[in-house]
Design brief:
By secondary structure, the chain is α+β, with helices and mostly antiparallel strands. It is built from seven helices and six strands. The chain has one domain. A two-stranded antiparallel sheet has the order 1-2. A two-stranded antiparallel ribbon has the order 3-4. It has a two-stranded antiparallel ribbon with strand order 5-6. A hairpin with a 6-residue loop joins strand 3 and strand 4. The longest helix has 12 residues. The radius of gyration is 17 Å and the shape is globular. The structure holds zinc ion. Zinc ion binds next to helix 4.
Length: 157
């Protein structure tokens, strides 16, 4: 009898429980987002790195593959978000639901600062998301400074 490795079992299980997201849904979400990460707003046209589809509520927490649970995210935001749906607001230290790009408007929770190099959270949700997803990590701040110099950033909407 074949002995299955843990990763093989995990990949089989995932295929049974979570059907893959179709190419057309993937394209629809990324087009609607104008090729921008819906958390940090970085354009894949500037980073050169294709966006991934983020489950707003992760499949490990029974989040669905329905379009209202999916958004476009850069690889980095998706990695930092991981399986989290909440994080602490650094001001009140309360645990807050992270920003939901399908239900909430980016500009209601975030604002650009320092000419666009930094994102500031203007609500508890915004602050918790900035911190949790490291929206001002050193690498992206350096990239934004270059994009600003070329008038490619920040995005208008
Ligand atoms: Zn991002």
């Amino acid at each position: 009898m074949e002995r299955l490795s843990y990763s093989r079992i995990e990949s089989i299980t995932k295929r049974i429980i979570v059907p893959p997201i179709s190419k057309s849904i993937r394209e629809q979400i990324i087009n609607q987002a104008d090729n921008r990460c819906e958390y940090c707003r970085s354009s894949s046209r500037l980073t050169g790195i294709p966006l991934v589809i983020d489950h707003i509520v992760p499949t490990s927490l029974m989040g669905s593959n329905e379009i209202d649970n999916l958004c476009a995210a850069c690889y980095r935001c998706n990695e930092f978000k991981g399986a989290k749906i909440t994080s602490n607001d650094p001001v009140t230290n309360e645990f807050i639901l992270l920003f939901n790009p399908r239900k909430e408007k980016w500009s209601d929770h975030f604002s650009w600062a320092n000419g666009g190099t930094h994102i500031i959270g203007i609500t508890a949700t915004g602050r918790a998301t900035v911190l949790s997803l490291r929206l001002n990590n050193e690498n992206i701040v350096q990239a934004r400074a270059i994009w600003i110099g070329l008038n490619w950033h920040p995005p208008e909407n």
